[in-house]
Amino acid sequence: MMKLFRNLEIKKTVLIYGILTVAAVITAYLWERRFGLLMLGVCTVFVAVYLLATYRRYRRISGLAADIDRILHEDCQVSLEKYAEGELAILQSEIYKMTVRLREQQLSLKEDKVYLADSLADISHQIRTPLTSINLLVSLLSEQDITPARRQQLSHELYELLSRIEWLITALLKMSRLDAGTAKFKSETLPLEELLRRGTAPLLVSMDLRDQSLEVSAEGDFSGDVSWTCEAITNIVKNCMEHTQEGGSIEINASENALYAEIIISDNGRGIAAEDLPHIFERFYKGRDSGEKSFGIGLALARRIITAQNGTLKAENKLSGGAKFTIRFYRGTV
Predict the structure, then answer these.
(1) What is the reported pTM?
(2) Which class for 89: exposed (0-12), middle (13-18), buried (19 or more C-beta within 10 A)?
(3) What is the rounded average pLDDT of the residues 195-216?
């Protein structure tokens, strides 16, 4: 009870009640002596009841504060139901909502930490392989009796490995921007045919070297971020190119209707293995037919770009053989 009087507000209230009590007792005493004694008793009881009620309230508040402190120190078994009645009910309800949200955020942070650790492990693994090859090539280039032809060959291989690492780092930076929600998407309108032309342009030379044909048929317009979408289309077509035999063909059909713009990319290659199909868009996932140069990030990046623009990306196998990727950019919320 003595701790209660350390509260400045309680001191002021008791002082005011004391002054009013003295004034009331004196006034009643001057009126009649017995009235003064009666007023003194009534005021004393009133002040005592006030102090007792205030003490009980502050004790409950102190208990609530202690329980909150336990929650903050990760004691998840603390229950606030005992404060669900009385004047603390509203406060209990809000604190309960806050603790639920804090626990959800804590769980989300733990999941993010695990995800970050796994991502860093995957990234280090992806970069370590070409770095090992680079170290070997550098040691070979430092040999004294190396021929000019051999030096040129090793330099070319070194350039390819550095280009792979550069592409991986660039793709991971783009992916991190998408994950963090910091990527800015522009709203542009472009004919679908022009969009596909830009998206496939970086791969035309490689396809020509593989003697692969590309057929494009497009009608209608595309509305969205052209640069990001071209990145997604390039990655999908590149995946089709790498899994299609030499002399094969890749076909792209695009159209537009009142609900969405659709782009279908298909090939006549080996198709997607049944065990790989559920995981093909997972980051760093490499199917059984993936080559040594595959990082398992191109399709994951493509899907993130498309879904960020209110779109969908589906992969399946054609009945006639080969893989088929269907992209849809919806005009409204899916």
Answers:
(1) 0.62
(2) exposed
(3) 92
